[in-house]
Every structure is written in structure tokens, then in C-alpha cells.
Amino acid sequence: MERFRVAGGARLAGEIAVCGAKNSALKLMAVALLAEGRTELRGVPRILDVELMAELLRRLGCDVRLDWEPGPEREDGPQKGSAIVIDVPAVPRTEADYDLVRRLRASICVLGPLLARQGEAKVSYPGGDAIGSRGLDMHIDGLERLGADISQEHGFLVATAKDGLTGASILLDFPSVGATENILMAAVLARGTTVIDNAAREPEIVDICSLLASMGAKIDGAGSSTLVIEGVDTLSPAPSPHQVVADRIVAGMFAVAATMTRGDVRVDGGNAAHLEIALDKLTQAGATVVPDETGFRVSMDRRPRAVDIITLPYPGFATDLQPLFAAMNSIAEGTSMVTENLFDARFVFLQELARLGASVRTEGHHAIVRGVEKLSGAPVRATDIRAGAGLVLAGLVADGHTTVSDVRHIDRGYQGLVTQLRSLGAQIEREPDPDPYP
Ligand code: EPU
Q1: Cβ neighbours of residue 72 under 8 Å, at least 6 residues apart?
Q2: Which residue blocks in 102-245 are alpha helix, DSSP H?
Q3: What is the distance between the alpha carbons of residues 315 and 372, in angstroms, rounded to a whole number?
Q4: What confidence tens digit (pLDDT) does each residue in 152-168 have?
């Protein structure tokens, strides 16, 4: 087990680059399953989740080559991400086991592609995770509307469509990212037209549509609430490598870090248009945000002002940035209300933040954060990826040392975080965690 030791007080300054988005790369890897042959992705983050997804694809019969060896080498990879090559066999296997699915919830996204291509898929039911109960009802309803039979047996979701899938009109109750992706990846090989209404509009969905289009899929409306998909008989691998869309959550983290530490950071590759509300909130907090051709720069010379935030599906404020803004609000001037609408257990993180001296009170899915002058370094525990990043940022502005344990969560989502923060002047290191109790 490892932990991060962070010394508070450094002002972050300089330039970093962002890699491709975790939440796109994992799904693009599943998209590859839709065609026999070789798909190359570029800009893939060197993170544990990508390694787990690679392992899952291997078990389905694919040959997957990562540009790096799994393990500590991840930390020093190119900041803009690495390449992976996936070779998909003519007949992939169709079963995804619990040992991987429970560690990587995103593996549920192989359900749609396997069902569409092989007429069957058996994917372990992922269960809950640290950020709360996460339903699959919309994934299942959508695939059933395309003609699949789905049952739950012995902990697995078993989906079959012996005569193939047929296009249908699907209205999602909520613009779920995962459900939109699974239905989309199935509909591209269904007979006839599928319309997904109230679809998720995230940049990662647009990225998936763009890879699918280069494989021969016919999709209209990417990035809007209505996706219209004309099914085709077969897809072929994209003729050239696909560049993964930049990680807006990583870019947003560095923007918040610059603001909290009264720093000056240019985020190369960060797409300001994908972070409109978040960057606007940082401006309200007092930061100066200047987008340029290939990134944006965030600078700050005062204590941030508290800002209210309400998480919503894209283009609303991203839930994955909520813990970072809560950390910023904890040292801001004034009191703020943080409302979490997507994941019920994301406020568990606030209890760890309180260990650093934050003044926080929660009522259901609202939290009242009263800004304090200073946080005070202490041992804390990362409970999920984004909570971990929030605690690291809190440690950067806390008096003395903060140790963040359970960094395996952070490793799931942030490539080379320690190296990048150090290059901006942060005092942070990775060290063995002497605590014998996991
Ligand atoms: N939901 C249902 N039923 C469904 C699908 C979703 O009730 O069939 C609920 C979920 O329980 C949740 C809400 O709808 O409360 C949002 O879920 P959504 O399906 O939109 O999210 P997801 O696909 O499970 C992805 C990201 C998350 C990110 C959310 C929202 C991946 C691998 N995960 O999750 O990322 O927070 O979209 O933007 O793409 C992270 O990276 O730390 C992370 C959690």
C-alpha cells in the first residue's frame, strides 16, 4: 500500500499537459470490439483502469499492447498520454467475470458491443461502489428495446439476441452516460434506425461517436440530446489511429489547484469549451482564466471567494469536479452551498476534508461549506478517485504535512499526478504506507 505525503504552502506555477480522458479511453477500447482487426488509440492515460480494461479485452480473446509496462513506470509517461493497440479476433469470447468488473465498473460497457456483434454477452453485475448505488435499469431497458433478452443469473447479466438487434426509439429517463454509450454501441449494428432521446451530451460521447463514424457507423446528432443511428451490417477498424479527447476533469483539477494555491498554471491541451461552467466559477472565485489556441491559463493572486455549485449532466457542472470545488470552498472567503445530484455517496469525502479542519455540514444532497482561513495537515484517506484528488489539493493549502492513503484510487484516474504537481512546484511524494490495516 502507498500513500502521498503533501507539504502545504507551495504556489503552483508553470505549464503541464493533459492526456486523453479516462472516461473516453475505456469506452473507446470497448468500441474496438465492434470490428475484427486492429484499432490504435493515441493519448491514452497510463492509469490502472486502462490496464484493467486491457486485461478484460484480453480475456475476451483480444491481443492488447500498451505502450508501457503496468506498474510504477506509469508515473513518468508522456504527459499527453500513450498509444495502445487492440487486435480483435473474428469471434471474441462473450463473458466478463466479476473479479475484473467489480474493480472496473466501466467494464459494463462491453455489454452493448458484444451483444451487437456476437448476439450474446454475459457480464458480471458490478454492484455498488464507493460513490453510491449505481443502477443499470436504463442500460437494460434500452437494450431490451433493441430486441435483446436480458436476465440476471448467478450475479451475471445475461443478454441474448439470437436473431440480431432491431432499431427502436428510446427515451432515457435521465441522460445517463453509461446507458447512452451501451445503447449506442449496440445500435450501430442493429437492423434499421435507432433514436436515443435525452441522450448524454458529454465530450466523451462525441469522441465515441467519432471513432464509430470512422469505423463506418452512421450516427447523427453527436453532442446533442438526440442521437439518430442508422444500423449497418458490419464495421471495420478505423483506418488511422484515433486521438482520445483531452481529459476535462484532469484539466479542471489543475485549474482549481492554480486557484487554490494562488498560482499561475497553463494547462496545455485543456479544452476551455468543455469546462465552461467550471472555469466561469473559478472566475467568480477571483481567478483569471485565459483560453488560447491549444489550452488555457489560470492565475490567482488572492484568497478565493466561495462559489455555489450544483452538479448536473453535461453541459452542467461535472460531478467529477465537485470534490475539488468543495476543497476550494473550504478555504474560501464566505460560505457556499454544494449540491450533488448524481452520486449519493460523494459527500463521504467531506468527512475526510473535515479532518483537515474544513467546516462542513450536510443535509441530504446539499452541503454547506463555511470557508476557514487555513486547513491543518493530517492523515486522510482517499475513498474514490475524485475524493483522492480533492484531498491532495486540500493538502497543498494545509499547514504542515497531509498524508493521503489508499492512493490506488487516485492511480485509477490520474496519470503521473505526483510528477506533474512536482513540476509545478508542489511538495508531494509517493511513499510506502506504514499502516498495516487496509
Ligand atoms: N443511473 C441509473 N440507472 C442507469 C444508469 C445510471 O439510475 O441505468 C444513475 C446512476 O446511479 C447515477 C446517475 O444515473 O446516479 C448518473 O449515472 P451515469 O450513467 O450518467 O454515469 P456513469 O456512466 O455510471 C460516468 C463516469 C463517471 C461520471 C459520470 C457522470 C465512466 C467510467 N464513469 O459514470 O466518472 O461521474 O459518468 O458524468 O465514464 C469518475 O471518473 O470518477 C466517475 C465516477
Answers
A1: none
A2: 111-118, 137-145, 177-187, 203-214
A3: 30
A4: 999 999 999 999 999 99
Cα–Cα nearest to 259, from 435, 75, 63, 396? 396
Task: Tell me 272's DSSP state.
Answer: G
Distance between CA atoms of residues 56 and 44, nearest Å: 17
Q: Are 159 and 148 spatial neighbours (Cβ–Cβ below 8 Å)?
A: yes
Query: DSSP letters along 162-202, please?
Result: TT--B--EEE-SS--HHHHHHHHHHHTTSBSEEEEES----
Write out pLDDT tens, residues 299-346: 999 999 999 999 999 999 999 999 999 999 999 999 999 999 999 899
- For residue 433, the SS3 value is coil
Residue labelled with grid coordinates 453510491: 132
Cell 503541464 sits on residue: 16
Q: How confident is the model at residue 76 (pLDDT cuts 50, 70, 90)?
A: confident
Ligand 1 geometric centre to CA of 263 (Å): 32
176 lines ligand 1 (CB under 6 A): yes
Grid coordinates given for 52: 484493467
Dihedral angle computed from the Cα positions of residues 416, 417, 423 and 424, in that order, rounded to the nearest 10 degrees: 150
Long-range contacts of 426-429 (CB under 8 A, 24+ apart): 426/6, 426/10, 426/12, 426/261, 426/396, 427/6, 427/7, 427/9, 427/10, 428/4, 428/5, 428/6, 428/7, 428/392, 428/395, 428/396, 429/4, 429/5
**177 Cα–ligand 1 center, Å:** 6
pTM for the complete prediction? 0.97
**Alpha carbon nearest to ligand 1 atom 11, residue:** 134
Nearest CA residue ID for atom 23, ligand 1: 178
Per-residue cell: 280: 466561469
